[in-house]
Amino acid sequence: MSKTIATFYHAGCPVCLDAExxxxxxLDTTKVNLEVVHLGTAxxxxxxxxxxxxxxVPALVVGGQTLHLNFGAPxxxxx
Amino acid sequence: MSKTIATFYHAGCPVCLDAExxxxxxLDTTKVNLEVVHLGTAxxxxxxxxxxxxxxVPALVVGGQTLHLNFGAPxxxxx
Lengths: 79, 79
Description:
Number of helices of chain A: 2
Structural class of chain A: alpha+beta
Largest sheet of chain A: 4 strands, mixed
Oligomer: homodimer
Shape of chain A: globular
Strand order of the largest sheet of chain A: 2-1-3-4
C-alpha cells in the first residue's frame, strides 16, 4: 500500500517549531511520508499551500484535509 | 517503553469530526494511547481541558503540547 503524502507548512516561528516537534514525533510514518516545508525560505510553495486551503502556519495537509495547528503567522506575512 | 497519553477533545461539530478522522488515522498508536473526549457530553472534563490550555475544540493534548486543530467552537460554548 502506498503511503499518504503529508505536508507540514511552517515559517520557523516558535509556534511552528512546537507543532513540528509534535507532528514529527507522533505521526505514523508507516502510513505517511512527511515533507516539511519552510514557507519563509521556499516562497515558491506558498501558492501550493494556499491552494490546499492553508490560511496560516503551522498547518498540516494530509489525506485531503488541512489542519491548522494553533496560530503562528498568517499566509499574508509570507508573501 | 510506556506510551504517551494523547487526549483529543471535541464537541461533535463538523470541524471536530474532520480533525478526529485525521488524528485517529495518522497518529502513531505504537507511541501514543489516544483517548477521545466529547466535551459536550462529558462536561466534567471541561476544567481538565482548560487546565491543559485548551481554548477551543477540536484540540489534541499530547506530550505536554496543546494543539488546536482548526476552529470548531470556543470552550465558552461548552459550559
